[in-house]
Amino acid sequence: MAAPADLRRTVIENCAVATVDAQDTEYASGHIVVAGNRIESVGAGRAPEGLTGVVRRIDATGHLATPGLVNTHHHFYQWITRGLATDHNLFDWLVALYPTWARIDEPMVRAAAQGSLAMMARGGVTTAMDHHYVHPRGAGDLSGAIIGAARDMGVRFTLARGSMDRGEKDGGLPPDFAVETLDDALAATEATIDAHHDTSFDAMTRIAVAPCSPFSVSTELLRQGAELARRRGVRLHTHGSETREEEQFCKELFGMGPTDYFETTGWLGDDVWMAHCVHMNDSDIAAFARTGTGVAHCPSSNARLAAGIARVPDMLAAGVPVGLGVDGTASNESGELHTELRNALLVNRLGAHREKALNARQALRLGTYGGARVLGRAEQIGSLEAGKLADLVLWKMDTLAHASIADPVTALVFGAAAPVTLSLVDGRPVVEENHLTTVDEDAVARATRDEARRLAQIAAGA
Length: 462
Ligand SMILES: [Zn+2]
Description:
GO terms for molecular function: 8-oxoguanine deaminase activity; deaminase activity; metal ion binding. This is 8-oxoguanine deaminase. Keywords: Hydrolase, Metal-binding, Zinc. InterPro entries: Amidohydro-rel, Metal-dep_hydrolase_composite, Metal_Hydrolase, MTA/SAH_deaminase. Its EC number is 3.5.4.32. The protein is of the alpha/beta class. It folds into 2 domains: 115 residues, Urease, subunit C, domain 1 (Roll), CATH 2.30.40.10; 306 residues, Metal-dependent hydrolases (TIM Barrel). The protein has 14 helices and 17 strands. Strand 11, helix 8 and strand 12 form a beta-alpha-beta unit. Helix 2 packs across helix 14, helix 4 runs parallel beside helix 5 and helix 11 packs across helix 12. The termini are far apart. The chain binds zinc ion. The site of zinc ion has 6 residues, from loops.
């Protein structure tokens, strides 16, 4: 794709390049030219001669360039409730934490979003998402606070506007004071689409419709939420098939397993992606493949809450779109996506396929192109190809942590988290020399500590 001659260009040379394109093209020493907010060219050897408007030329010797990492499942607000209920399974953990979560307000959510985003961005995430489903009455403009934090950080972002309307009195898990009414949840979700959803190719903000889970929302909210999403042309997101207890809950209440329940409520389709999908039988996986329903695989959270091992190799073999998610940081205190690249590979090898389960390149694909696909953005991001948006990372691979590993993709996935020399989002630097360029990391850390203490005090007094 030819770029206008007046565009400002950044030239990156002398690095290994893993494009994660359809052929998994890699260059042992290659170049990338960024023009404006797009990738203009990627290839072997040095950049073409005679480029005009070059404002920056980077000698990236000792680095690996990859597409920016894409996170497909998170709950930002949990950044200020990390390290609690550490030895619980999902349902017990939820019951322990709901009363605290129900006390969040706008300053807490803003600080938690900044913390979550900063942790991901400094580790090479260029596209983030937040599934935010706790909306206490009078808590303020939580969606606006979260979107503002993502804009300030400079990362591409999907807000999955979540909701819960099945409280304890209706047989659900959340306390009644933590849920919205059906009508309020739908109206607020549509207002968020009106205010923030951007359909353009290079959109920095998109909105999805995201009721929380089968055990915290009514059948009607799932059904009408799906209708709303399709009427407005936005994507659908929820939690599904996370634990055996959820499967049991669905069988008792609805007379069927979660995947069949989702199908009856309009929740299978190529505009849907679901977190976890741990307890899936062959026919569930076939239904996801047939409908193009995507999966956000969250191996660390699934291990933390003893949920089980998702059948990712079987999903990939069936053609199910799969991305990676850190999940909320109350169930994955790390909060960075490299952990998920590594754990996706390691945890799946503990399953039925053993050492054949996943390799390093498949793990990198899950964390980049796979994530772009489940977020509905594969045409724009997720691989390094001419014409795509300039979301990319230069990983420093010549330090103690990785220098003795010959293959850089193996080093990146199997090794420790690599330092990020440069992360570009939409052609703009978000990380330089391992430091965030857009926010003061220490100030964010202090704000998150202060808001975590304030929430703990309010919750203790409640
Ligand atoms: Zn989650």
